[in-house]
Amino acid sequence: MDIESFSPLRRVKKRIRTRSSSSSSSSVNKLFSYSCFSFKYCFSSSSYKISAGDDCMPDLQNVNEFSFSELEAATNSFHPSTKIGEGGFGSVYKVQDTVLFSYLNLKLVVYVNDVCGLVFGVKGRLQDGQVVAVKVLSAESKQGEREFMSEIASMSSISHENLVNLRGGCINGPFRILVYDYMENGNLSRTLSSKSSDPHNTTTFDNKIISWKVRLDISIGIAQGLAHIHEEINPCIVHRDIKASNILLDHKFTPKISDFGLSKLFPENISRISTRVAGTLGYLAPEYAFSGHLTRKSDVYSFGVLLLEIVSGRKAIDFDLELGEHFLVDKAWDMYKNDMLLQLVDPLLEGNFAEAEAIRFLKVGLLCVQEKCGLRPNMSTALKLMRNEIDFSSNKDITKPGLVRDFMNVKIGQKQLQSS
Asked: Which PROSITE patterns match (predicted)?
């Protein structure tokens, strides 16, 4: 197969401009039901060079391209079996192994129709051998290209051990490209929910192997990453969507916060609504859900819920036939009031944990989810409490938590969201 037969970017742009809706493929129509996609595969970086006139991050010197038909073939028409994860900014799909990628040094063409409003992401390998995750954002943002790339440059300059590294980005035509380091061990949500008895489990370790020490290290790492974007950079960044699935784990299981700063790339109304539809009920701070009032303390609330999840092994929201829907925050508060916090610790630990540490971490979680945001600690204080650098003075320091139980008639910003 001749590599020159693959259409360069300018021809892809032309197709987008000239193709009528009546000639759109059935595959494109299939994608309209999705708000965003993400998938992964390995490729060899080609020598295709972006011209000096293109708006591109200095860190991203090459754009690899393939056509939509190749993309469709590689994902088996975006079959559900290729889906490997889901996040606030997109579902994650795994590309099937095909001969196409085994013998061709192809350029990657990301074909995105302006009207589709899609988000794509892929896994790839740069020329230096570094495996990366590539997210391709549709032009949802009304920002100009220079303003958009300015935001990307700002985000890529933020470096911390507990933040996913943004290597760079590029804008060409109707889409924007972000390139991240790829995290080998998936996200924390899958790790916490996996079971060794599940024969279909593909994660690298499960609840029985998540020792107390590993849980402590993950919790501390997340707190360090949040403290950094909240208090150590200027201007600060409010994440908006802290949850287990947005915490990625590298090959050493070091936690990395993903998707920080992405909300700045989309209009306010899209960002807020996307938090609602991403299914993060249970993590959402009540003051943000009901009034649109967003501060760093909103992230602190979400971190508190996440900390309770890590210690207990329970989901933020669970459901059973007898009790119906129930919330971890409610459960933790009830156990705290009845002096039974130790019973909340994950039974899969089989007692292999330090009781004083478990109590301390659960109390920090409850401090972070207090209803009045002014009573919640900032992240640096929460971190000191977790490290036992600050003592809890008394139980009266913890007040009743706030909780958003549903989105019926919830007001977000200037929009009234009602269940249909």
From this structure: PROTEIN_KINASE_DOM, PROTEIN_KINASE_ST
